[in-house]
């Protein structure tokens, strides 16, 4: 089989992780008046000592580390979605693997090209993850919710054309507690220059996303 040049530059997507910190100091009350008795002084002193130290606001956080992304999709699913790709996949270098990890699979079989990547992104809280999730889906119109996937999930499929070559890309974004799961699945046919159907790409992306979310939920929690 002769090799063919790829018309598209496919790159890993690096998204900054949102980090939140909450800290506060409570000031003690003013001096006691001479008319207060000893018991009142002791009570006020105890309260002042408790309030004078640093305090932190508790946040809901389930996951403290991103799991290995290349084990998030089964070999059977990889074979179905990316024919000809090695099941092990390839992890993309990250500036902080505790917060973000991505794995990619891609292969050209005959004239059909397929690409799949999955990412885990961790934030400091459920609230931060929810905010990031809402922002991202707001930037990607034309999609819809995916019921029963994580705390919230959204999928969208887009068609692009470059040098008369079509590529159809499906993206699924899911929020699971303080984590985001992001799946990108796309394909092209270099013989016909057509892209796979919307249904094929959308179902493939959702199938992979379900497995990745399950791997996160069933993995180690903080």
Provide the helix percentage. Answer: 25-40%
- Report the order of strands and helices: EHEHEEEHEEEEH
Structural class: alpha+beta
Q: Major beta sheet, specifics?
A: 7 strands, antiparallel
Q: So what's the overall shape? A: globular
List segments where confidence is low: pLDDT < 50 over at least 5 consecutive residues: 1-56
Q: Count all strands and give the number.
A: 9
- What's the CATH class of the largest domain, please? Mainly Beta
Give the helix tally: 4
Distance between the termini: 48 Å
CATH architecture assignment of the largest domain: Sandwich
Q: What is the CATH topology assignment of the largest domain?
A: Jelly Rolls
The overall number of domains is 2
Rounded radius of gyration (Å): 25 Å
Question: Can you give keywords for this protein?
Answer:
single chain; 222 residues; alpha+beta; Jelly Rolls; 2 domains; two-stranded antiparallel ribbon; 25% helix; disordered N terminus
What does this structure look like?
The protein is of the alpha+beta class. Helices cover 25% and strands 29% of the residues. It has 2 domains: 24-55; 69-218, Jelly Rolls (Sandwich). The model is unreliable at 1-56 (pLDDT under 50). The protein has helices at residues 38-52, 75-81, 126-138, 198-218; strands at residues 24-25, 54-55, 90-92, 100-109, 112-122, 144-145, 152-162, 165-176, 179-189.
């Amino acid at each position: 089989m002769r090799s063919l040049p790829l018309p598209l530059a496919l790159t890993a997507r690096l998204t900054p992780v949102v980090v939140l910190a909450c800290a506060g100091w409570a000031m003690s009350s003013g001096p006691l008046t001479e008319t207060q008795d000893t018991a009142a002084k002791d009570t006020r002193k105890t309260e002042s000592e408790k309030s004078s130290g640093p305090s932190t606001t508790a946040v809901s956080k389930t996951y403290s580390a991103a799991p290995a992304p290349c084990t998030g999709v089964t070999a059977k699913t990889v074979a179905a979605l990316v024919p000809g790709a090695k099941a092990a996949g390839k992890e993309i270098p990250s500036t902080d693997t505790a917060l973000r990890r991505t794995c990619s699979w891609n292969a050209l079989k005959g004239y059909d090209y397929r690409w799949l990547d999955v990412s885990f992104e961790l934030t400091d809280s459920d609230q931060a993850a929810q905010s990031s999730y809402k922002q991202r889906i707001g930037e990607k119109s034309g999609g819809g919710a995916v019921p029963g996937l994580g705390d919230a999930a959204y999928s969208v499929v887009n068609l692009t054309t470059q040098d008369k070559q079509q590529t159809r890309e499906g993206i699924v974004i899911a929020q699971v507690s303080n984590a985001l799961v992001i799946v990108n699945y796309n394909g092209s046919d270099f013989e016909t220059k057509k892209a796979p159907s919307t249904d094929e790409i959308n179902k493939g992306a959702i199938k992979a996303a379900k497995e990745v979310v399950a791997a996160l939920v069933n993995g180690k929690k903080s």
